[in-house]
Specification:
The chain is elongated and about 50 Å long. 21% of the residues are buried. By secondary structure, it is mostly beta strands. The chain has one domain (5-120). It has strands spanning 5-6, 11-13, 21-28, 33-42, 47-54, 66-72, 75-76, 82-83, 87-95, 102-106, 113-120.
């Protein structure tokens, strides 16, 4: 993914291949975003479906498959001032069916879930 994508049920094409894991870098905003649907579709039409809770970027909730990936010392407010506290991007790790070829990733249908990148390994 080349840009930040806000979760609106958007489907993002993935590099076709057989992979063991999907790593998603992202966060929740406006509070924790619990029980969100993430779907990986394979070229044969089958899917791997995950229910994932996304911590708010102001602090980790210790969700499954979640680890802090980047800590930022502040965020910019809309008036140009700095909100000087720690903010986080989280890595979410999803196991894939490595016998199948991935095709796409469908993000949660929720604008308060933000994804910045996805990596397959």
């Amino acid at each position: 993914m080349n840009n930040v994508v806000y979760g609106t049920g958007k489907t993002v094409p993935l590099t076709a291949g057989k992979f063991k894991k999907l790593y998603l870098l992202g966060t929740g905003v406006q509070g924790p975003q619990d029980a969100q649907k993430v779907v990986v579709t394979y070229t044969d039409g089958t899917t791997s479906k995950f229910t994932q809770s996304f911590s708010d970027w102001s602090g980790a909730q210790g969700n499954a498959r979640e680890s802090a990936a980047l800590t930022m010392a502040y965020r910019n407010n809309c008036d140009g001032t700095k909100d000087e506290q720690n903010f986080y991007l989280f890595e979410y790790t999803f196991p894939l069916n490595s016998a199948k070829t991935v095709q796409s990733l469908t993000l949660p249908d929720n604008r308060n879930v933000v994804a910045t990148s996805a990596t397959l390994k």
